[in-house]
Amino acid sequence: MTASPDLATARSASPDLLRSVFRQHAAGVAVITATGSRPVGFTATSLTSVAAQPPLISFGVGTGSSSWPVLAEAEHVGVHILGEHQQELAATFARSGADRFAAPTGWHPGPEGVPVLDGVVAWMVCRVVARVPAGDHRLVIAEVVAGDPAGGGRPLVYHQGRFTALRD
Fold first, then answer.
1. CB environment 75-94: b (16+ within 10 A), e (fewer)
2. What residue ranges in the chain does DSSP mark as E strands?
3. For 50-68, what is each residue's pLDDT tens digit?
4. pTM for the structure as a whole
């Protein structure tokens, strides 16, 4: 039997508590892209596989992010699984005000005109099927329409507030 949590040290629910708990949770790192009048993208650690039939994924996006106005209208999004060698790319897409698609970021227009990043472990283009309000975010649910899992390499991971690699 495992020991019960120490209720004496428990903290009340708050945004800081949520952030502190999720710093303990290792997550894969993805970049979500879309295009409207300009290409947009952001780093996400909230990517989830939702269903196999039909193939659905989800991710969260803040409504205050610079990418949200384009994502709010986009019919398709790109989902890119980053490799352990792409810490700087992850940081670029996480940085507010960065020109995320300028050199050295390599990318090209993919299916449905969605920006597809070069050198990633895997990518998908997905058709947005729902945007669900969730506090100051939207949970985007999208159906996979194309992709390539063959980029190879080990995935980038986010843990304890930093990008890192898996260890054997």
1. ebbbbbbbbbebbebbebbb
2. 27-28, 30-35, 39-44, 48-51, 56-62, 76-81, 107-109, 115-117, 122-134, 137-148, 156-159, 162-165
3. 999 999 999 999 999 999 9
4. 0.89
